[in-house]
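Dear Dr. H.,

I hope your travels went smoothly. While you were away I took the liberty of generating a structure for the chain from your last submission, since the lab meeting agenda had it listed for discussion. I wanted you to have the full record in hand beforehand rather than looking at slides cold. The sequence, exactly as received, is reproduced here:
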Amino acid sequence: MNLRKLYENLACHTLLTNATDIKVRMRRLHFRIMIGVLLFYAFYPLTWFLFRRPSEALKRSVPQSVNGTTVWDGDTFTLRSIQSETIMQDQSGEMKERLKEPVPQENTPSPNRDEENLPAVLQKDMKNDAAAQTTDMQTTVEEEREDPKMGDGEKVVLHDIMHDNQNEKEISTSSGDNVDGILKILTLDGSMEKTNCPEQNRSKTENRKEMLQASDADTSKSPDECWDDYIVTTGPGLAQEVFCPQWSFPAASYYTTVEPTVPFEVMWRVWEDVDADSESVLTPITIKTASLDFTVMSYNILAQDLLELNQHLYAHCPLEVLQWSYRCNLLLKEIEKWAPDILCLQEVQENHYHEHLHPVLSQRGYICVYQRRTGTKTDGCAVCYQSSRFAEAAVSKLEFFRPETGLLDRHNVGVVLLLRPLVTTEAEVKEAGPPLCVANTHLLFNPRRGDVKLAQLAIMLAEIDAVIKSCKARGEHCNVVFCGDFNSIPHLPLYQFITTGELSYQRMPTWMVSGQEDLSYKPSYHRLFAPLWPSSLGISDTCQYTTDINKTRSQNSGTRGYSHEFMLQLRFCPAACVRPENLVLIPGVTDIKPDTSEDAQSYEKRFRDCLKHQVDLESVYKHVLPGSGFPEVTTLHSEGGTTVDYIFYSPKRPLTKKQRAYKTSGGKGLKLVGSLSLLSEDLLWSLNGLPNHIFPSDHLSLVARFQLELDDA
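The corresponding predicted structure, in token form, is as follows:
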């Protein structure tokens, strides 16, 4: 029983499988039949149109000749003709000999080469029609020979020329040739047929003679005119091929064709001049004085060691644009193109500076000051200036690594120069005008360490403030140009601190100082509290040195090198807290250790929760592209683009009421004349990002032009 059930199950399974297979095959067959029917209905009209025979109405219609074209049933057709009269005459002679030969039979092949390409059915019909037409033409010739009206001196010759797949039919009359009457008359589908009335036949013959005589007269007047200008007005048939004119379509473009003119070069960055009208609103009209225009460039040139250390940031770049030799050539060309008077560079690799940059810049008339970063990093900052435009008055190389403070443990540097403008008068070069303080730095990149960035910036501002005070002590106004890579986003706390001179930082998250990354999603992060840095740094909350060494030295008298106040401020320094070995023990005097807790508490109380500085600074760029409203970008790599590079300067402010009352000639400061435009992130990505074949670094160069008023002397 079990085997029987097993066999039955197998049989049922086999039947079901076969039935399913049959259904699938039937569906496939049905689908193929439907596809075939659809293809038949789709291609049948096209086949009928390509291989159809001319209709009877088409045969019986009579065309008319208008301006060299044949007008036939409302449509215009052009009959191809022989373009050379000499060829027609030669073919006419050949035709005369051919007409004297016996009439070809029905099986004679057609001379038309294109007929061979037609289907067999149409070729057969074409042969039958040609044979019938030849028989009718032979009958007509015999009847015309018996007509007594035709004289021996008159001859009518019909040239039937086959050329370029069509029939050429021309009728010619001449006197003087002895030919036995009419050799051939064209008759197609009832046109020019003979009738039973002799008078009608005679009138038709006379009309033909007049037409041919007029044709000969026209030909004799213009011998250079080709015979193919005259078209026989006979109806089309299968023995005559008619060609439709080809349709002419306009060019496949929506734009008008413009002839190329002078080739042009796309300028990705353009020079933008400051609007004079807006400047006149802010600044009152003053008496024109002598001025000096100078150009400043700030450029992070991307050190090759840092590029190779962070190759993942430049995976989108071709390998050739990452080579230093290629980038160096582009860099030097860009510097030469804009020809800045003052050049501030960041990420300058030390060996590249000494081997490639400094020799070339020296040949171009630059004097350079270079400061390498401390630690293991091989890059640094450089400030170069034209020796023909400025003279160096003072230089300060700053290192931000201060291990004794505990906070400043990063190896960043800065350079501060004091320059004096040079003016050439006749045969001598002399200093003229107020001095110019040029500062260049590269702050820490780490987005999470805003406290370190503020401390490094405070060192730079304190040094700039010291230079300004030294000039003020000599009765001079010092203008400032502050360049660098600040690793901070526009309009965020660090940027606001530079431009406004004030920052309330209490309990501010450290990542928010620069705004490079949004770390608000983290559950906890470091916050800022007063004081930001220890007193051992020697900088107050107003970003000034707590001890003005230059000032104290100028106020000293006699043989003392330092004042009493200055010595008191050194009593808690690390060296003063170490007891000398040979110090004599005096009870109550030298046996007491200094208590620094009270001074530390007083320092914390003095250090406010609001940072300030006294340097009036303003950014050259507005950080938004005019017109489009897109943000400007100064750096771009695979992780995105943003603005971190700036040129700050001390602007020329409007005069106050007190200054106007004393009739001051003008406000102090620099006047911004123009700047080199920046680009948007989308446009830089269209150039395959940075660096590329145009820009050699992952930063864009910043270029600005200023005007400095010189002294009256």
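Two observations you may find useful: The domain at 291-546+606-709 is CATH 3.60.10.10 (Deoxyribonuclease I; Chain A). The chain has a mean pLDDT of 75.

With kind regards,
E. W.
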